[in-house]
Amino acid sequence: ADPIRAAPPRQATMAQNDVVEEKIRTFVRQRPALPDDVPQSTNPPPPPTFLGGGIDVEDDCLDVTEASICYTANDQQRCYDVDGGFDGDSTQAELYEATARSIVDAVGSGYNGTILAYGQTGSGKTHTMRGGISVAEAGITPRALLQLFELQKQSGATLTFSLSYVQIYCERLSDLLGNDTDELSIRDRPAHDGGGVYVRNATRVPVTTPRQALDLLAAGDSKRATASTLMNEFSSRSHAVALLHVERKTKDSLQRSTLTLVDLAGSERHAACAGRYKRLEESRAINLGLSALGNCVSALAERRPHVPYRDSKLTRLLQASLGGTARTALIACCAPGGDSTGETRSTLEFAMRARKVVVRAAPRDVAVDYQSLYEEVKDSIDDYRTRERRALDEVESLKDKEEATQQRILELERENDALKHALQRQQRPVVEGDQVDVIEQLHAKFNDDTDEAERRHASELRTAQARADAKIKAYRDAAEVSARECDAAEAALTGEREGHLASLKELRRVKAEFRETEARHAARVSELIEDVTAAKGEGEAKAREADQAADALLKRVETLEVSRQEQLETDYVSRDAVAEMEKLFRSTIDALAARLEDLEGKRVSDVAAGRTRGRVSAGARAVLESLDAGEDLPPLHERVGG
Fold first, then answer.
1. Would you say 402 and 464 are in contact if contact means Cβ atoms under 8 Å apart?
2. Contact partners, residue 30, CB within 8 Å, separation at least 6
3. Contact 633, 623 (CB under 8 A)
4. Distance separating alpha carbons of residues 354 and 333, to the nearest angstrom
């Protein structure tokens, strides 16, 4: 069978601002069978070793196919779709290429990335993440470190790395790289720093080589809680989380990303604890944490409005990995053989739920607050200078104590010489035997006391001198470190200051151009104001002329109105006269109409006879011409005058 059966990776959706939208990639790995997995006799199996024992591999419940895992139990089979399946013949390199390489590449480009190993106790999670001693057996963690440092050499940006390593044991968060007494807490990262969560007070060690990082992880593993159970002789009793922080600097941006490598403690039945109280408490805490993780995954898969991240420290720490700001891969580890306890099926069900969770990852750009950075560096420099002054003051104090000790030694030496001289003066050439013995005894005692005092003071002097030298050396080392850090900080500030000076020069240039433009515009505005003023004067003159013309016109209209009124008064005719004239006009019209009828008859006969209108009066002729032309009759005065 093909040792690696991986489905093609699901296509990620790229949105604006380089946002990657994809589902959690899920893989299933079945560890190879070990000698202790096969019963050698009908006797009870021997005590278990690493990766478990006592499982009959002849009744294997898993079948790895192209893009799915088929689980068989009680003559019933169910297949689960996965992004890749790996059987016992798969290698660490094949697993890494399919599961982790793309995520590590994304971390080098500014994205957050998470790789989790999930499964029951003894299913090979730690072997998957850390691997063995040889290069071929190296797990995901060392291979990811090697890949990131290779990216550091090839990238056009500047990549720097730092490492933190913590564990969650019985719902207590502890530091595996620092002092275990430090109280750690999970806090929300500010929005200007990209959001998410971080571990407060966790030791963060800068690393420059993969070997240094692996040595730190090995030192942390020595502090990790492990114990022997019926399922695994070296069972991990805590969730271990390695956080590799990556800072990516370019000329125009600063991005921070984190590669989170999680080796979860294995789920197990309480019966595997063999009745031991401590193992039972550990198992209960592990199962509660994994249950909270399952609840969060279910809520995310079903897109519920509330996700209970705060139910455990594990889900709180993985909030960014599960909640959508990191590209995430889950490796579900399964043991070979049967599944009498249902742990393998539970693992596959969890993987299927996780495969439905959609994450949206984007590079975490950091908004640089230069004022805060300056204040921070300034406070750091002030702190270093304060420590340096304290160190120098303590050195001076030690020097004063050393001088006092030397002075005291000189005084004791002078007292010793005075006592010797006094003893010599008291000696006589001839003395009795008992007096000589007493004097010799006194002299010997004095010499012994003097030698003891000299030895004691010499010892105290050497001790004080050694302490003073040690403190002076320590303070000098601290002062040198402080000086180097101050130099680095000053160099950084110098770079920032040069950038600010360049920006200031550009601002001054723009300001000068603005002033020149403003001066030109001011001159043009002055010209326009003068033109407007002149035009306003001309307009006012024309308005005055128009007003004068209007006044003259009004006067003319008034004159005409007066003349018209006078004319009306002169031509006034009374109503009675008008009525009489209308009556006369009507009677005249009637007479004319009758006359016209007669004349029309005569005209017809005259025309026929060739007669002319010479005998007709002028008034009648005018009436006839008007009638012929279809016009109105002429005015009465014209007809009467005719």
1. yes
2. 62, 64, 86, 87, 88, 333, 334, 335, 336
3. yes
4. 14
pTM above 0.85, yes or no: no
Closest to 337 measured CA to CA, from 55, 72, 119: 55
Would you call 332 helix, strand, or coil by DSSP?
strand
Ramachandran area for residue 164 (φ above 0: left; ψ -120 to 50: alpha; else beta):
beta
- The 10 Å CB-count burial string (b at 16+, else e) for 127-154 is bbbbbeeeeeebbbbbbbbebbbebbee
Task: Check residues 530 and 325 and name the one with the higher pLDDT.
Answer: 530
Q: Which two tokens stand for residue 625?
A: 């011409």
Q: What is the pLDDT of residue 46?
A: 44
pLDDT per position as a tens digit, 549-558 = 878 878 887 8
Confidence of residue 608 (pLDDT cuts 50, 70, 90): low
Residue 365 tokens read as 């750009």
Name the phi and psi angles at 181, rounded to 5.
-80, -15
Residue type, 30: Q
Q: How far is CA 398 from the centre of its chain?
A: 51
Task: Give the largest CA-CA distance in the chain.
Answer: 222
Segments of 149-218 assigned E as strands: 158-169, 172-175, 185-188, 197-200, 205-207
pLDDT in tens, 51-100: 333 344 446 778 876 577 888 887 788 888 889 999 888 899 999 999 99
Question: Confidence class of residue 261 from pLDDT cuts 50, 70 and 90?
Answer: very high
Residue 14 has a pLDDT of: 42
Continuous segment of H or E residues that includes residue 14: strand 13-14
Any residues with CB less than 8 A from the CB of 292 and at least 6 apart, and which?
308, 311, 312, 314, 315
Task: Kindly tell me if the per-residue pLDDT of 176 is higher than 50.
Answer: yes
